[in-house]
Amino acid sequence: xxxxxxxxxxxxxxxxxxxxxxxxxxxxxxxxxxxxxxxxxxxxxxxxxxxxxxxxxxxxxxxxxxxxxxxxxxxxxxxxxxxxxxxxxxxxxxxxxxxxxxxxxxxxxxxxxxxxxxxxxxxxxxxxxxxxxxxxxxxxxxxxxxxxxxxxxxxxxxxxxxxxxxxxxxxxxxxxxxxxxxxxxxxxxxxxxxxxxxxxxxxxxxxxxxxxxxxxxxxxxxxxxxxxxxxxxxxxxxxxxxxxxxxxxxxxxxxxxxxxxxxxxxxxxxxxxxxxxxxxxxxxxxxxxxxx
Length: 292
Fold this sequence. Notes:
The chain is α+β, with helices and mostly antiparallel strands. It has three domains: 3-69 and 121-142, 2-Layer Sandwich (Ribosomal Protein S5, domain 2); 73-115, no CATH class; 147-288, no CATH class. It contains eight helices and six strands.
């Protein structure tokens, strides 16, 4: 979702440069800084680029460079004539000396310079839109490049979680045996207490079944596969554009299964593996915010 793009286009008299910067956001938040004389084009350009940007906190700045040699301001000759006539009238009426430097005297007075008003012509409007679309295209290419990096990152993290899940199995079998042995040892230490061994066996089976993690392992494995499928693994390497929210939901479901696996583990080695799985998942959650 993050990225930067720049577009440049020229009209008959101007060079227009548009720069776009995008940051993470749950929806599209587009802010445009544009010169006043291009403001009437802002809504049209916004409508054109918004569907292409999809999501993100986006800032677009527009810079206009005048390529004509004509100055942007000119002397206001009628006003200068009026000022000079008034000063000469004051000079005669008050018997004052003539100014030593008419230029300095007159040019210090207000409104002696008039700024040429920028007017939007058709070529300026087209150049603005072309530059904006060029910046969006560059931003999209940047996003695609980042998306491919994220794709490889996610694939590695999903593989790491899958490998850690496979490491659970040996400790899981060992854990069941140890739980049974510990319970039997504790019961054997209760002297003078009579109990139904058949009922005890049933309770042991029930207790061990509550600690069984096969369903959590199956669901987690399914979520791992679904995450890869959502990114588009079946169609080869590509960005996960348009799937950011969905990937976030899948990551949440993966987290639930990992947490349940940890709460049922009742084994120090398994809990260490669960902690490593959580670390891998946390990195996925952080980076999935960068996916559209």
